[in-house]
């Protein structure tokens, strides 16, 4: 059987993710003015996967129809373009370098480029908090490479945040980085979702996350999705909506 190059595999999985969201659109968030006034401001940052873009993921927010998100500021940034080792040095949107595909629980990590990306995420979080958003109402979410960056960004942020949601991600750093995790960061809850038939970031890579987090004292809810490959489905996103909603702090 002729092997498909990783670049092609990633293009297929990422485009299918967005197609699923576009084919099944939902109504925009709606709420009464009185209800929105009682809601505290919140912030959701979405980090896309390798080779993707922020704007291509914006349809995700249309699935969050609860009035609880009336005062939510969404951000869908795009990663800078850079050479990616696992794709033969091809230049593409990438938060940090990935050394091999498929990604397993034991894949090598490039912590140097990862930590640079974490600093940029932290700068975005700092800006929202400085603008008046309660850290407990800040949620970082990401798919694939963006999920790995989400995990690192949440764990290395010095304050307790509302939560971090990892979709089809992995632990992108070695155990030595544990020393940098503050007691406050360990209080940030993690939601981890992964497809059982993921062939790009193997299920074993995702499954290794919760034991790692439990060992360092971080709470994690892990959800496995049978039949799901390297993609996001609406079931995952509907659960994410309820998960974030349950953790939003009121304005009182």
Automatic annotation (TrEMBL):
Task: Give the highest taxon in the source lineage.
Answer: Eukaryota
InterPro entries in the record: AB_hydrolase_fold, LYPA1-2/EST-like, PLipase/COase/thioEstase
UniProt-listed GO biological process terms = fatty acid metabolic process
One GO term of the cellular component aspect? cytoplasm
The chain positions of domain Phospholipase/carboxylesterase/thioesterase read 38-246
> Record keywords: Lipid metabolism included?
yes
Keyword annotations for this protein?
A: Fatty acid metabolism, Hydrolase, Lipid metabolism
What molecular function does GO assign, one term?
palmitoyl-(protein) hydrolase activity
The record's family statement is: Belongs to the AB hydrolase superfamily. AB hydrolase 2 family.
Q: What is this protein called?
A: Carboxylesterase SOBER1-like protein
